[in-house]
Amino acid sequence: MDKLKFCLVTNWYPPDNFAGSGIYLYHLAHALVEQGHEVTVVYCRESFQIRSKGRSQKDMPQDSRIKIIRVESPFGALAPLAVHQTGRPLFNAPRLKEILNEDFDVINYNNISLMGGPKVYQYGKAVKIATLHDYWLLCPISSLFKFKKNVCRKKSCFLCSIYSGKPPQLWRYTSLLKKSLSHIDAFISPSKFLKSLHIKQGVGGPFFHIPYLIKPMVSENEENEERPYDKPYFLFAGRLERIKGVQEIIPAFKHGEFGPLLIAGDGSYRNELEKLSNGSKHVVFLGYVNQKELMRYYRGALAVIVPSIWYDNYPLVICDALSTGVPIIARDIAGPAELVRESGAGTLFRTENELKTAMEEMADNAELRSTCSKRGKAFFNDNFRVEVHLSRLFSAIRQTRELKRA
After folding, report:
1. Closest CA to 167 of 147, 193, 141, 144
2. How far apart are the first and last CA of the chain?
3. pLDDT at 229
4. 342 and 298 share one domain
5. Within 13 Å and on the Cβ side, how many CA atoms surround 258?
6. Do 216 and 380 form a contact (C-beta atoms < 8 A)?
7. pLDDT in tens, 280-311
8. Which domain holds residue 319?
9. Pairing of strands 150-151, 145-146
10. DSSP labels for 216-250?
11. What does the pLDDT read at residue 364?
């Protein structure tokens, strides 16, 4: 395509980032400028500080060609809290209007729940595309995980918000969201599951299924690379929150029957998980691990376990596992199940017995691990490489432009 001017709008962006969506945007921004496009990233520093408790990803170098605008308010944390309650960027509206009314060709909205709420969709005059990373359009707590117990099948949003410790959003009972969505020209969904659920719930407009862009960290000397742990192990990587389901798999490892479980990551649920493990030497908490070091843990693992108990979208841990050729053992739900089925790079489970069977097979069957590895790498190359992602993205932009003109 001709060289375009992109504006990526999001709650958080490295180094002020703690979520997979921020990692994706980081890789997308770098890929676009390497192709000669102009990229401006707009994010809200207070949003990051509220959600992350200050942990940043300083190990991710920045490209000087990317213009990064950190929207900060003199009102501090009140700014994103006001967005949460009103659906509008009350304190930052003039600044956001000024930025988004520049002559961009494409405005790509991502997580904007604390950046500007649905009202920010109405700002700007470019081709507007919204990339969906979770269920915020459908759910006040973004996860469709009802009362912190089960996936949501029947809405009780007001009570669920209170139970989750978040004040109810009264703007969701007005026409604001519907009016704001009418300003979006197209939606991008990384997973088919996410796309179908939004369409079923009445989110209109053209939808494009485009898997994430992933830039794998390849070891220059993988064969001679020192392994990060001296025993065969299984790996979990991700935020330690209840919805990630780590509590569901720790009991299977407490007695060392399947080798140790290494847990890479941190989060608000870590203390509960450590209590559950009861000091077992077979459950090892690594804490936060930077991306480069994490790749070593992937490459040394028997398999990566993804035990999510919510409608997980497209977990980057699975994408990273595919890129490194590590087999995957995932719960049979939403995005993880979609990825494993389509790639053939692992096994799905629903019960603890099925999990144990899957781990036993992965530990004992080198041929199975090799087959999963080859399938995973092939699937990664077909779907997540930079050139594949950009080709699909620009195709979506072309079609959206034509529809907008029409």
Report:
1. 141
2. 20
3. 83
4. yes
5. 26
6. yes
7. 899 999 998 888 889 999 999 999 999 999 99
8. 222-383
9. antiparallel
10. ----TTGGGPPPSSSS--EEEES---GGG-GGGTG
11. 93
Helix, strand, or coil (residue 260): coil
Q: What is the DSSP letter of 165?
A: T
Question: Residue 353 to residues 282, 327, 358, 366: CA-CA distances in angstroms?
Answer: 19, 19, 9, 21
Q: Are residues 156 and 199 in the same domain?
A: yes
| 286 contacts: CB under 8 Å, gap ≥ 6 | 262, 263, 264, 265, 297
d(C-alpha 402, C-alpha 390), whole Å: 18
Same domain, 237 and 359: yes
The alpha carbon of 34 is separated from its chain's Cα centroid by a whole number of angstroms, namely 23
| pLDDT for the residue 224 | 59
Total tally of structural domains belonging to the chain: 2
Token pair 């920010």 in the structure block, residue: 120
Q: Are 260 and 282 in contact (CB under 8 A)?
A: yes
Let me know whether 106 and 165 are in one domain.
yes
Q: What pLDDT was estimated at residue 257? A: 81
pLDDT at res. 53: 59
Side by side, which strands form the sheet with 303-306? 283-287, 261-264, 234-237, 303-306, 328-331, 346-349
pTM of this prediction exceeds 0.70: yes
Contact 205, 186 (CB under 8 A): yes
Same domain, 268 and 121: no
Q: State residue 123's pLDDT score.
A: 96
CA nearest 218: which of 296, 290, 288?
296
Q: Which residues of 62-73 are buried (b: 16+ CB within 10 A; e: fewer)?
A: eeeebebeebeb
Contact 327, 376 (CB under 8 A): yes
**Residue 104: what pLDDT?**
97
Q: How far apart are CA 333 and CA 38, in angstroms?
A: 38
Specify the CATH number for the domain of residue 363.
Answer: 3.40.50.2000
Same domain, 282 and 335: yes
Low-confidence ranges of the chain (pLDDT < 50): none
Confidence (pLDDT) at 100: 96
Tokens of 279: 């000091």
What is the C-alpha separation between 52 and 33, in angstroms, rounded? 28
> Tokens in use for 22?
């921020």
